[in-house]
Specification:
There is one protein chain. This protein is an alpha/beta fold and about 280 residues long. It is built from ten helices and seven strands. The strands form two sheets. Strands 1-2-3-7-6 form a five-stranded parallel beta sheet, with helices on both faces. Strands 4-5 form a two-stranded antiparallel sheet. The longest helix is centred in the first third of the chain and has 22 residues. The two termini are about 20 Å apart. The relative contact order is 0.17.
Length: about 280
């Protein structure tokens, strides 16, 4: 793992998030930014994928269960070469293939359409089971929100995955502790998240989800875990990388205005320049 390269790439992914949401005048920057390091690690380090052949049979699969953070996924895909980075500026525009939620029929690199919260893990579990039944070596990754895991369907899927010992499945919970209505632990606490997954026969790992050393270690541990799926509880900062968005619930689903856009992009430029010193 080239940590510096990943850090620089994550800055570019964050820039793409801000540019897309600003251009759309709508979208979800907070949770996209908190998960930007996870997106970066998955697409630039972890997954067996080929942007030139998005439907490669043996590719690893990714499901964005918290589909509203599509700006983060799109930025990672664009920077990885699935489609032009300039297309991020068409986010949510009429006629654009980059809709507000991922669409597997129109976006290269998207393995599962997502929208309604709670459904993505079931799809990922199905993919993982298919891999086992077909004796394929691909792995399946699903990114969930910590507010999303208040949905009952998440735990039905987790129960099935644990029971079927789907060790080719890695679930990542973006635990930034903020959802649209406020702090997760005040709205409807899912804590302790790790113990809940362990109760469903998951191997659970707690990490700083904005630290590439910890991310790298966790994914290696997940790959080495046999006989049960893994849940990585990634403790992150909502809005990470843009000072005025960090830990601010109001930025869950709001686009920056022109002045805020300029401030955000300047901060990210400085962060990128600092990594080049």
């Amino acid at each position: 793992m080239d940590k510096l390269k990943l850090q620089k790439t994550a800055v570019e992914v964050r820039k793409g998030i801000i540019e897309g949401v600003h251009s759309a005048k709508a979208g979800h920057p907070g949770g996209s930014l908190s998960a930007a390091d996870i997106f970066t690690y998955l697409y630039f380090e972890e997954m067996n994928i080929d942007p030139k052949n998005p439907k490669m049979e043996g590719r690893d699969r990714f499901v964005l269960s918290k589909g509203h953070t599509a700006p983060g996924l799109y930025s990672a895909l664009a920077n990885r070469g699935y489609f032009p980075v300039e297309d991020l500026l068409t986010l949510r525009h009429t006629g654009s293939y980059l809709q507000g939620h991922p669409d597997m029929k129109h976006i290269p690199g998207v393995d599962m359409s997502s929208g309604s919260l709670g459904q993505g893990l079931s799809a990922a579990v199905g993919m993982a089971l298919a891999g086992k039944l077909d004796q394929k070596s691909y792995r399946v990754y699903a990114l969930l929100g910590d507010g999303e895991i208040q949905e009952g369907q998440i735990w039905e899927a987790a129960m099935f995955a644990g029971h079927r010992k789907l060790d080719n499945l890695t679930v990542i919970v973006d635990n930034n502790n903020l959802q649209i209505d406020g702090p997760v632990d005040e709205v409807c606490s899912p804590y302790p998240i790790d113990k809940k997954f362990e109760a469903f026969n998951f191997h659970a790992i707690n990490i700083d989800g904005n630290d590439f050393d910890e991310i790298d270690k966790a994914f290696k541990e997940a790959k080495a875990t046999a006989g049960r799926p893994t849940a990585i509880i990634a403790h992150t900062v909502k809005g990470k990388g843009v000072s005025f968005m960090e830990n601010a619930v109001g930025w869950h689903g709001k686009a920056p205005n022109d002045a805020e856009y300029e401030t955000a992009m300047e901060e990210l430029k400085k962060a990128g320049d600092a990594l080049c010193q």
